[in-house]
């Protein structure tokens, strides 16, 4: 699994429903790398606040909870889990009630700094040869020096159509509206709609899932070849 050298970081950002989690996990598997889902941490913190009855819109109350937020995430793409304390919240953090408040939590700078420190520690300590980390600000804030940085995009129509195909109790219109309003709120905090300098865009609008995974793997292999890695 490991070579004992510095892990290769593959940073991937993109809007909601662009395929970051599913594609990044498949890419990690293909490369024999670890996989870090940073959005799951923001979701897990939102879940923790809900369980404790804390209003996510009151920044001071959210910040006061950080020392008590005992969070763990699996980074093996074949053993993915999210835990808060002794609770397995892998599925619970995907519920619409969590998705509905996560942007409130994510806009708090202290929360971002606190989580970013943990993301960097997880990436540095990975026992794998590399790690695919995905989110909204990995290419720009968390790992701006990563040797591979990708913006994974797809048109809003494509993203809404893909989300609507998933099993959900909500209507396609509600799913689409939730996706749009989350992107709008999140875009006020970090720019994940435009590729920063040196970031390669992979637009999956006209690609199926496997083609998208191959396109991302190609970007990684090309970057590693040109960096001699
Ligand atoms: N290229 C593609 N073609 C078809 N379906 C895709 C493609 N990429 C991803 N998908 C599907 O789109 C849906 C959304 O993908 P995923 O959950 O990985 O997105 P995400 O960017 O992580 O979303 P979010 O930010 O909301 O968590 C999933 O059902 C996934 O299987
Ligand atoms: N680097 C990141 C990752 C996520 N967020 C916030 O978390 C929410 C959930 O993320 P998903 O990838 O699971 O959809 C997202 O809507 C953002 O509010 C973030 O700010 N930065």
UniProtKB/TrEMBL annotation:
Binding positions (ATP): 14-22
Top-tier EC class: transferase
Subcellular location: Cytoplasm
Enzyme Commission (EC) number: 2.7.4.25
CDD domains according to UniProt: CMPK
Keywords, sorted A to Z: ATP-binding, Cytoplasm, Kinase, Nucleotide-binding, Transferase
Chief place where the protein resides: cytoplasm
InterPro entries reported in the protein's UniProt record: Cytidylate_kin, Cytidylate_kinase_dom, P-loop_NTPase
Family: Belongs to the cytidylate kinase family. Type 1 subfamily.
Name assigned to this protein: Cytidylate kinase
């Amino acid at each position: 699994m490991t070579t004992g050298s510095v892990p290769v970081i593959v940073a991937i950002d993109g809007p909601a429903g662009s395929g970051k989690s599913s594609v990044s996990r498949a890419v990690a598997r293909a490369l024999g790398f670890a996989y870090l889902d940073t959005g799951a941490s923001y979701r897990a913190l939102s879940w923790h606040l809900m369980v404790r009855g804390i209003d996510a819109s009151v920044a001071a109350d959210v910040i006061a909870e950080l020392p008590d937020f005992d969070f763990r995430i699996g980074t093996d793409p074949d053993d993915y889990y999210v835990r808060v304390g002794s609770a397995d919240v892998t599925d619970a953090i995907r519920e619409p009630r969590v998705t509905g408040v996560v942007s409130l939590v994510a806009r708090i700078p202290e929360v971002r700094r606190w989580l970013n420190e943990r993301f960097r520690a997880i990436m540095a300590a990975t026992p794998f040869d590399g790690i695919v980390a995905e989110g909204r600000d990995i290419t720009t804030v968390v790992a701006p020096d990563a040797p591979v940085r990708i913006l994974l995009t797809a048109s809003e129509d494509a993203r809404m159509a893909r989300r609507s195909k998933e099993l959900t109790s909500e209507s396609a219109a509600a799913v689409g509206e939730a996706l749009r309003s989350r992107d709008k709120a999140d875009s006020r905090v970090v720019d994940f709609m435009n590729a920063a300098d040196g970031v390669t865009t992979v637009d999956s609008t006209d690609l199926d899932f496997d083609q998208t995974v191959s396109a991302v793997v190609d970007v990684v292999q090309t970057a590693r070849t040109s960096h001699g890695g």
